């Protein structure tokens, strides 16, 4: 046969794949697709949570900055008041 003597020979015949094997492969593809969809959903949720956390962090940072400014003002006020 040509396949035995020529290592580059490729058969043009179509190989039969049993229906149960096709179902099994389709099930695996569906499973991987579901996992990837779930991963995408979780990543989108995580991204939203990170955005909310960043906003809260910005608000907290602004509050800390305001507190620092106000506490320095009060310190100066009472320093002058005690000086008199």
Short description:
The protein is 82% helix and 0% strand.
Your description of this structure?
- Residues 21-81 form the V-SNARE coiled-coil homology domain.
- Keywords: Coiled coil.
- InterPro entries: Synaptobrevin-like, Synaptobrevin/VAMP, V_SNARE_CC.
- This is V-SNARE coiled-coil homology domain-containing protein.
- It comes from Adineta steineri.
- The protein is mainly alpha-helical and 84 residues long.
- The protein has one domain (18-83).
- It has 2 helices and no strands.
- It has helices at 2-5, 19-83.
- The longest helix is centred in the middle third of the chain and has 65 residues, at 19-83.
- The chain is rod-shaped, with a radius of gyration of 35 Å.
User: Helices and strands: which structural class?
Assistant: mainly alpha
Helix fraction, binned, reads over 70%
End-to-end distance: 114 Å
Percent of sequence in beta strands? under 5%
Shape by Cα distribution:
rod-shaped
| Order of secondary-structure elements | HH
* Main sheet: strands, sense, barrel: none
**Average residue pLDDT:** 86
Please tell me how large the radius of gyration is: 35 Å
Number of helical runs? 2
Q: pLDDT under 50 segments (min length 5)?
A: none
Q: How many strand segments?
A: 0
How many discrete domains? 1
């Amino acid at each position: 046969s040509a396949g035995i003597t020529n290592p580059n020979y490729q058969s043009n015949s179509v190989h039969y794949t049993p229906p149960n094997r096709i179902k099994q492969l389709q099930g695996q593809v569906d499973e991987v697709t579901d996992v990837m969809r779930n991963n995408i959903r979780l990543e989108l949720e995580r991204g939203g949570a990170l955005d909310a956390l960043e906003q809260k962090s910005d608000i907290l940072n602004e509050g800390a900055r305001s507190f620092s400014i106000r506490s320095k003002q009060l310190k100066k006020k009472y320093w002058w008041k005690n000086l008199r």
